[in-house]
Write a structure and sequence with these properties.
The complex is a heterodimer of chains A (286) and B (358).
Chain A (H helix, E strand, L loop, with lengths): L8 E3 L9 E3 L1 H12 L9 E8 L5 E9 L1 E3 L4 E3 L1 H14 L4 E8 L5 H13 L4 E5 L10 E11 L2 E10 L1 E3 L3 H5 L1 H5 L2 E2 L5 H28 L6 H13 L5 H38 L4
Parallel strand pairs in A: 2-4, 2-11, 7-8
Antiparallel strand pairs in A: 1-9, 3-4, 3-7, 5-6, 8-9, 9-10
Chain B lengths: L2 H4 L3 H6 L9 E5 H14 L5 E9 L2 E9 L9 H18 L6 E7 L8 H13 L4 E5 L1 H4 L6 E6 L1 H9 L4 H7 L7 E4 L1 E4 L2 H10 L7 H6 L5 H37 L5 H25 L1 H13 L17 H37 L1
Parallel strand pairs in B: 1-3, 1-8, 4-5
Antiparallel strand pairs in B: 2-3, 2-4, 5-6, 6-7
Classes of the chains: A alpha/beta (286), B alpha/beta (358).
Chain lengths: 286, 358
């Protein structure tokens, strides 16, 4: 039988085609901390995500805070006043951070989430929903981001589907520094700069070792030669400035001497400090 | 009756003073470190502050959360706003079960120049309300070099007593055996993380063998950084010499009045002469240190170094900034030393990779 007017289920994918999200590790930390501190009867934690929308459409999630909520089988209640109060306070510090979405812990998206998402979509046109699986149900901690897409049948809104968008964990350099500290459960003392230098040099040497082994392997025929890698290596080596050894030595020695001079100067200053101190306090002795 | 010999009565317990165990270290959560880094970095080069929250447990001060303060404009009515903001934040955080206890504050700094009178005053303000508080100093400019520059500071007790009596004369300082190193105490920092977070972080770690901070560390262009350090050093030197000039006439006058009854006029002049010679040599030393920038300053200072007039009504006091200036001096010095060490180390080890490849 020929179908009369068949309406087609429309997925509006244009707006979400190039949407992706970037998360700062601080947000994950916040979420985990709130989860650990949640009140006993709550199973999951819900909160607001703050950040900004970059010009190319990606959502940059920079900060977050938890919002108290109550949840039962039928309904979900969110403390809206708290949410607004915190928002105002946070914006006093950083007016550029606006609401970009909300998060919840737990693996999947539940029915209650749709309601909450609805609430947030009244605040922000296209909120991002972040789920952080603190239960490690899949054997690993999954962090997923979703946006809601409206499923329309002809003119009628049928449902909203949560569509996953790519998520990127992005870390700033300074945060990278502390990363080793942040990984373990406890660190006895902060690494000094010399120790950090040591670690860096070890890593660098390891890299150079790898390259050596690879080149040796290719030369002896163990490893299949890959032209692009070979070109890359030759480019890298050619990038070193071409200096004859005496010129290089002179360069290094000059800079070394400059630094030794500075070292000497600062030692002199320290000595003078000591002198001045003694003068000032001991002068009354005379 | 017999039981009370072993168990103290409530009254007794309430009457005995708690023995305050000395603070051995500060335990910070990774969350707090990240927040501090983020806040300071976003607003650098402006200096920002924030509040630390946590618990005071025995000899450990635990810092479990923090929140930033908004940047304060120079306006009187913002005072009340600031207090309101703080109360509001504490109340909100209380609702989500965050420790509501203030244990100190953090601030960002540039190249370690954080030792000002304001810092001491803030410390005293906090100390009135809280038994133990720390100040965490974070240096975002040093972090660009690849080092996590985080420090926890506390005012030493002897200095606090002295400050309360507001008595900074030379004799008092000598009595207490207090020199400029004793003003601040640095407390070691330990970092702790909950197991959940460390699990997440271990997983989220990328697999690259070399990270960005390695690139930062291996950079050789530390010249601008060193230059700024030296500029700070020279400025501090100038300030110090000005302070000494202020204090010197008074010291000299005291010296003169103290020696005249004991010995004759001749030796008194000798002593005065000796001291002025010493000052001269100090100024010329300063000359060598900062030839380009402070040459003019030094010449002017050495040129107008008159012998002071007798002014017995002048109260003897050491200007309060003086100890702090010395300290800031010391710290800038230390930083200069530090980066010298780093640089020396870098230069030595720099030769190795080059020899390998070449």
């Amino acid at each position: 039988m020929p179908a009369g007017d068949r309406t087609v289920l429309q997925f509006s994918t244009q707006s979400t085609a190039n949407l992706s999200a970037k998360v700062h590790p601080l947000v994950i930390f916040n979420i985990c901390d709130c989860y650990v501190r949640r009140p006993d009867q709550a199973e999951r934690v819900i909160g607001t995500l703050l950040g900004s929308v970059l010009p190319d459409g990606t959502v940059d999630i920079r900060n977050s805070y938890a919002v108290p909520h109550t949840e039962s089988a039928e309904q979900v209640a969110l403390d809206i006043e708290y949410h607004h109060n915190m928002l105002v306070s946070q914006q006093k510090v950083n007016p550029k951070e606006v609401i970009v979405g909300w998060y919840s812990t737990g693996l999947g998206v539940t029915g209650g989430s749709a309601l909450i998402h609805d609430f947030y979509s009244r605040e922000v046109p296209n909120p991002v929903h972040l789920t952080v699986d603190t239960g490690f149900r899949n054997g690993e901690g999954t962090i997923k981001a979703y946006v809601s897409v409206n499923l329309a049948l002809g003119d009628r809104q049928l449902a909203a589907q949560f569509q996953e968008i790519p998520l990127d964990l992005r870390m700033v350099e300074a945060e990278r520094l502390g990363f080793d500290i942040l990984k373990t459960t406890s660190v006895d003392k902060l690494p000094t700069d010399l120790e950090g230098m040591e670690v860096t040099m070890q890593r660098l040497l390891a890299l150079i070792d790898d390259i050596y082994k690879y080149v040796d392997g290719v030369v002896e025929g163990h490893v299949a030669a890959d032209n692009s890698i070979g070109r890359f290596i030759s480019d890298t080596v050619a990038a070193l400035p071409k200096l004859s050894p005496p010129a290089f030595d002179k360069l290094v020695n000059d800079s070394l001497q400059d630094q030794l001079l500075l070292l000497y100067l600062s030692s002199i200053t320290r000595t003078q400090l000591g002198l001045a101190e003694n003068l000032n306090t001991a002068a009354q002795n005379l | 009756m017999a039981a009370s010999s072993t168990a103290r009565s409530f009254l007794q317990v309430a009457a005995t003073e708690e023995v305050v165990s000395p603070l051995r270290f500060v335990q910070i959560e990774g969350l707090v470190i990240l927040k501090i880094i983020k806040h300071c970095k976003e607003f650098s080069p402006a200096l920002v502050t924030g509040q630390l929250l946590g618990l005071d447990v025995g000899s450990v001060l635990e810092v479990t959360n923090c929140f930033p303060f908004p940047i304060r404009e120079e306006d009187e009515e913002i005072e009340a706003d600031g207090a309101n903001y703080q109360l509001e934040m504490m109340r909100c955080l209380r609702e989500v079960n965050v420790d509501n206890n203030t244990v100190g504050w953090y601030q960002s700094t540039i190249l370690g120049s954080y030792q000002t009178v304001e810092l001491i005053e803030t410390f005293m303000n906090y100390q009135e309300n809280i038994r133990r508080c720390v100040c965490i100093i974070y240096d975002p400019s040093r972090s660009n070099q690849g080092v996590l520059a985080l420090k926890a500071l506390k005012l030493s007790d002897s200095f606090m007593e002295l400050y309360r009596t507001n008595n900074f004369t030379g004799e008092k300082l000598r009595e207490k055996n207090l020199s400029w190193v004793d003003i601040f105490e640095e407390i070691p920092i330990k970092v702790s993380n909950s197991a959940l977070i460390s699990a997440f972080m271990t997983e989220l770690e990328s697999n690259t063998p070399v990270t960005q901070c390695d690139y930062d560390r291996l950079q050789f262009s530390s010249n601008p950084y060193m230059e700024r350090n030296m500029e700070f050093l020279i400025e501090c030197m100038d300030d110090l010499s000005m302070e000494q000039q202020k204090a010197f006439p008074i010291l000299l006058q005291e010296l003169v009045t103290s020696t005249s009854p004991a010995t004759g006029m001749v030796s008194e002049k000798k002593v005065v002469y000796l001291i002025s010679m010493l000052l001269d040599s100090l100024f010329s030393l300063k000359d060598h240190l900062g030839p380009s920038k402070s040459e003019n300053m030094a010449r002017k200072a050495a040129g107008e170094e008159p012998l002071p007039e007798e002014d017995p009504t002048n109260p003897i006091f050491k200007p309060i900034p003086e100890p702090s200036r010395l300290e800031s001096f010391l710290i800038t010095n230390q930083i200069a030393n530090y980066c010298n060490q780093i640089n020396g180390y870098i230069v030595y080890s720099r030769s190795y990779p080059f020899f390998w490849i070449a």
